[in-house]
Fold:
Amino acid sequence: MIDQIAALSGQIGIATDGIATLTARVGALETRPVFTGNADEDLLAAQQAADARAAELAAERDAIAAEAAALQDAARAATAQAAEAEATALQAIAEAEAAAQAALALAAAEAALGQVQAALASGTSFAAPLATIATMVAIPEPLQSLAEVGVLTQDALTRNFAPLARAALPVALQETAGESMGDRLGAFVMGQIGGRAVAPRDGDDPDAVLSRVGAAVAGGDLDAALAEVAALPQGARDILAPWVADVEARRAAEAGLAALTATLAATDN
Structure:
């Protein structure tokens, strides 16, 4: 029974194909001109059939051309979008790389700033870390000029002051002594004794001024120390001049470091 159904299905398929073939043939015959035997009518019918076929072909050609143009437009649009997307991606990559490099440079500069601070605290050279910072921001001139040799520490300035103060005291006493012989003799004796006030005390006499200078530098107030030195007589200032130069160098370095720190902080923002 199954074989018979399969055979019947095959016959139906063959019949269906035949019907499709006959339908196609009938359609083709329907489109052909019908010749009547009249030459003029037959020629007109043939011409009309040819014109109709030509119109169909032209319509098909136009449809194909329109489809091709649409495909070309779509291809061009896709190419433009791809190029734009690539350019956007490349720009984003470049910006990300630049931001990463800037962040690395800033991190290196901030680490170098810490090394400069440590060098000022220890009194050593800070030229190498300063060169790293220079790749990011401008370096204040005082720091630049002091980088190779460094500056004296606060402890060193305090230690160096004591012997110079002892040497400057008798000179200052002589310069500030009165005109009388007693005043001059008293100043000479005080200078020879070599005693000097260690604790800061009030007063305008050289010993009081020197006591405040020593206390100011020991406390890290370099501006106050230099202001007190300016009140001493010229002879005492001459003795203290090398020490004053060291104090001014450290003060300039500290001011430069503060300015540099602020500049880097602004760059980070």
Observations:
- Residues 95 and 211 are 60 Å apart (CA to CA).
- The chain has two domains: 2-76, 141-268.
- The first helix runs from residue 2 to 31.
- The radius of gyration is 52 Å.
